[in-house]
UniProtKB/TrEMBL annotation:
Protein name according to UniProt: Diguanylate cyclase (GGDEF)-like protein
Organism: Catenuloplanes indicus
Superkingdom of the organism of origin: Bacteria
Domain EAL: 24-274
Length: 281
């Protein structure tokens, strides 16, 4: 009976996989159209200075308004974009649009953070493209931060070379989701990073789970010793914000302060500010 059960589970599993694979192929085809037809747009999540509650900048996050499925989240299409190569035109849209928006918000003195996939970094001419986008929008490179993950740059000489090129034109570099992938501390020596973003998985239990707090502490100390900015991602409670500030995280990001917002809603947040009691009460 156990064997039968095993077999039927296996059948159910492959059927589900089949659906998911077909689904992926279908989405890849539609993604090309989405890029051309303007179904992609950006939302912006504030990055808050934990010491003061001031909005220091934001992270641009892509969204897909699918004509049938409605809002599709990046975790569902970025992997498809990467494997199909569509990440290159998609990333080009994200870079142009986010820098254009940042230039419009120039008087607020915000930093703009943009996620870039490994495939984009390896694209010849990527550094020149970033330089051209900055020039076109008259936006200072020092206010742009490119976010990459550990896996995007791990043992990839071309990607690392691109990071050096970006630093050379004055762009800042953040190591995103720090601590989750094949964390190689060697990356901190070979890549010219300026910021570490502690992954949300360590923030989640930072006030209750001793081991998570220990990792968060060690990452803050390391960032400080290496003269890197430290950002904690996924802050959802005031207790987490206070604790992380105490550990040395200068910046924080998370639903506590705000969900990612449309440009109009972000402007309203800029006017009203983030309520200080979220951190200080
Ligand atoms: P990420 O770069 O680590 O972005 C942070 C993600 O965490 C965002 O999800 C954000 O909405 C979510 N988040 C922020 N605060 C909280 C919180 O307090 N609690 C929880 N539970 N989640 C929070 P999103 O927008 O769904 O993006 C997911 C990932 O997709 C991003 O992770 C990034 O790796 C990728 N991504 C998004 N936009 C782009 C893009 O334009 N290009 C590339 N290459 N990747 C992108
Ligand atoms: Mg990011
Ligand atoms: Mg992240
Ligand atoms: Mg993440």
């Amino acid at each position: 009976a156990a064997k039968d059960r095993g077999k039927s589970n296996w059948v159910a599993y492959t059927r589900e996989m089949g659906v998911r694979i077909r689904d992926g192929a279908e989405l890849a085809g539609q993604l090309r159209e989405a890029i051309d037809e303007g179904q992609l747009h950006l939302v912006y999540q504030p990055v808050v200075r934990l010491g003061t509650g001031e909005i220091a900048g934001c992270e641009a996050l892509v969204r897909w308004r699918h004509p049938v499925r409605g809002q599709v989240h990046p975790t569902d299409f970025i992997p498809i974009a990467e494997s199909s190569g569509l990440i290159v035109p998609l990333g080009r849209f994200v870079l142009r649009e986010s820098v254009r928006q940042a230039a419009r918000w120039r008087k607020h003195d915000l930093r703009m953070n943009v996620n870039v996939a490994g495939r984009q970094l390896r694209e010849p001419g990527f550094v020149n493209e970033v330089a051209a986008v900055l020039t076109t929008s008259h936006y200072p490179p020092e206010l742009l931060t490119i976010e990459v993950t550990e896996t995007a740059v791990l043992s990839d000489d071309e990607a690392i070379e691109a990071l050096h090129g970006l630093r050379a034109i004055g762009v800042n570099l953040a190591l995103d989701d720090f601590g989750t992938a094949a964390s190689s501390l060697g990356l901190l020596l070979t890549c010219p990073m300026t910021t570490l973003k502690l992954d949300r998985s360590f923030v989640e239990g930072v006030t209750t789970v001793t081991r998570q707090a220990a990792v968060a502490t060690a990452v803050a100390q390391m960032a400080n010793a290496l003269d890197l900015n430290a950002v904690a991602e996924g802050i959802e409670t005031p207790e987490q914000a206070r604790l992380l500030r105490g550990l040395g995280y200068e910046f924080g990001q998370g639903f506590l302060f705000s969900r990612p917002l449309t440009p109009a809603d972000f402007e309203e947040l800029l006017l009203n500010g983030v309520p200080g009691e979220l951190i200080f009460s």
